[in-house]
Amino acid sequence: MGGKPKVSSKIIPLASPKGPEKLCELCQRVARLQCTECRATFYCDEEHQQADWVGIHRRICQLLVPIRTQTFLSLQRAGQIVTQQKKAELIEICRSVAQQKLSEGKHQEALPAAQFCLRCSIDVHGPNTVQLVPAYLLLAEANIGLGNVSRVAELLSQAEWSVLKSPDCGHAVHHRLHRSLGRLHMATGNLEQALLHFANDIYFASEAFGLDSTITCRGYFLMADAFAKQGKTPIVRSLYSEVTQIWHCHLTNLLENRIQNAQNPNVLLDSSYDNQSDKAQQVEVDDMLRTMLEFEQKDPRKDPAQVARVAHCLAMMWFLAGDSRKQLNAVAKRKKK
């Protein structure tokens, strides 16, 4: 269906509150509307209600009822209900929804989920803790897509401060932080600083996941983009070749595993591409491979073997994902070269 996404119509004007004023879920201004489904979420106007509904609220509306209602709060004070597990569930849902929307390029829609993820994380872990870093990075990525560079710098500064206060935090946190900082400097045109952060990203990712990990090789790809903007084509070609090799090996292993277990439906399901990587990564990898394929096809000194290898990666990826149309298109490009 075309047009605007479906929006909950079940909102009513908020009666004069008893006690503290209710605040808008998105902007924290004084609320004038109330969701009639959960009766625990409030908005300043219909535009913010619609944005929150599309962004995250339709996924978590009923989950908020036991956490935000007065009855629940009374029971909590009596020590009869534990909230941490429920809030941890909300954090994971919001993280997943925000990441999915970011992978689809829906940066505005990702904001409500990322914002709620941060607020809920603060409730669970407290302010200025390293556990908030993933939420800061989600918000930063959404704002990079919207061109809000000053807001990105503020969020990443908070993330850096949280990491500096936690010297024992893992390599994975450092890798994600440096990747986001690299993207910020790419957005501001500071290529040298971007390259420095992408180099740190690769180092920490390789410590956490291995040098040949598909997670690490994303750093190679981002670094190649910075070198491309500097006109350093040989370096770009070398980095793209490394990325292609890693993904070709990874996808080949998945495909061989699929074939070997073809007679066992349960094993087949576990080894499918959809279970190895979520939809967000699938979109990201498709974009990365297509970018490298376009680069090779435009390069006067293009390497036919590299073109074929990238096209083969695309074909394997979409075969494992069950998209035969995209698989055939990738095979056709491979044969054309």
From TrEMBL:
The keyword Zinc applies. Gene3D superfamilies: 6.10.140.2220, Tetratricopeptide repeat domain. InterPro entries: TPR-like_helical_dom_sf (IPR011990), Zinc_finger_MYND_domain (IPR053248), Znf_MYND (IPR002893). Pfam families: zf-MYND. GO terms for molecular function: zinc ion binding. It comes from Amphiprion ocellaris. This is MYND-type domain-containing protein. Residues 24-61 form the MYND-type domain. The gene is ZMYND12. Keywords: Metal-binding, Zinc, Zinc-finger.
